Amino acid sequence: MGIRNYLIEGVSGTGKTSVCKELQRRGYNAINGDRELAYQGDPETGTRTEGVTHEHHIWHVDKVKDLVANKDEEVTFFCGGSRNFSKFIDLFDGVFVLEVGLDTLNRRLDERPEDEWGGKGRKTERELIVRLHQTKEDIPKNGIIIDATVPIEEVVDVIVRLSEENKPERQ
User: Fold this and answer.
1) Neighbouring residues of 106: CB distance < 8 A, sequence distance ≥ 6
2) pLDDT tens digits, residue range 5-63?
3) In angstroms, rounded to a whole number, what is the distance separating the alpha carbons of residues 9 and 138?
């Protein structure tokens, strides 16, 4: 969808959905991958699986490839987490990884409703999120770290500025 395409990643609770909404509010083409591209499947094969688990939260690789190949937009931001990002990360011009401290993470998870991933009363999911926050095992290693503890407008300002700095010169 974009001449330039960026992935915005981070553990659950770091603000990927909020960043997506703010980018859309500002008129940018932003895709909420968790809602528009995700399904439950095997991260290696893409085969659908039953039930809902973090390990099987993946994106449709072909859909990502098709969206990246469409050059109708100047820039597109793909926001969300995926356990199969290694299958398509090389398609992006850059990766931004949202990061927050543990206190901020816990506060944000406390604010989630019971029916949302890691929300109130979902102890096992919360423990997993905290572990992933500490180990960073589930996020791209080559991303630019973005401090997502500041107000969302400032987070998006940084992402937009950095994506503009990476803008190729027109011929």
Assistant:
1) 130
2) 999 999 999 999 999 999 999 999 999 999 999 999 999 999 999 988 888 999 999 99
3) 10
Q: Sign (positive/negative) of CA torsion 145, 149, 152, 153?
A: negative
pLDDT tens per residue across span 64-110: 999 999 889 999 999 999 999 999 999 999 999 999 999 999 999 99
Q: At the topology level of CATH, where does 2-164 sit? A: Rossmann fold (3.40.50)
Pull the structure tokens for residue 44.
């290696």
d(CA 104, CA 126): 13
- Would you say residue 166 has pLDDT above 70? yes
This prediction has a pTM of 0.92
Q: At how many degrees (to 10) do helices 152-165 and 16-25 cross?
A: 70
Beta pairing class for 57-59 and 38-40? antiparallel
Task: Give residue limits of the domains in the chain.
Answer: 2-164
